[in-house]
Design brief:
Blueprint (H helix, E strand, L loop, with lengths): L5 H17 L2 H12 L4 H17 L10 H22 L6 E3 L5 E3 H6 L3 H21 L3 H11 L5 H8 L3 H25 L1
Antiparallel strand pairs: 1-2
Helix pairs in contact: 2-3, 2-4, 3-4, 6-9, 7-9, 8-9
Amino acid sequence: MRSRGRNGQKESSFVSLQEFIESGRIGNALHFACRLTGGNLEESRELVQETCYRVLWHWEHYDPRQSLDGWFFTILKNIFRDSRRNTERHLSLDHPMTDVDGERLSHADLFADGNSDILEHLEKKEAVAGVRHALKRIRPFHRQVLKLRALDRCSYEEIAHAEDIPVGTVRSRLFRARKTIQKRLGQMAVAS
């Protein structure tokens, strides 16, 4: 006679997984994945396959008192969300998108006609992000003096008066701030 303890429950739940796959309920998972991916069948199949792999890999964490379908679909949805987060961070030029006319195209298609304005815009946006990142990493009193000089167009004397420091200190801080930013931007250029 089979034991009905925790191991007995695990064995019977593993049979439930086999039934889940053989009964065609895996098709429901594929349908759900297609809805998540916007009808991308290839991505949906990969999503279901990855879910099956993770379900088997983490089978010891399954509680047989829970619905197997619910557990499976939760894992599937979480894998999809994780993949979307990664896609948002690392968008491929081949990633499909829809233009204003409803035509499906990729980001690479935008550059195919020689429209360098978009590329220039992206490069400027990346450069601005790099400068912002470098500015965050310099000392606050250097950042303040640099802001007053570069953005507000204040003279050395006006900055000295506003910050209540000598003009020589203003020049020194500006020099150090510029050097630090140049160094940080150089490091970022080498890293990318």
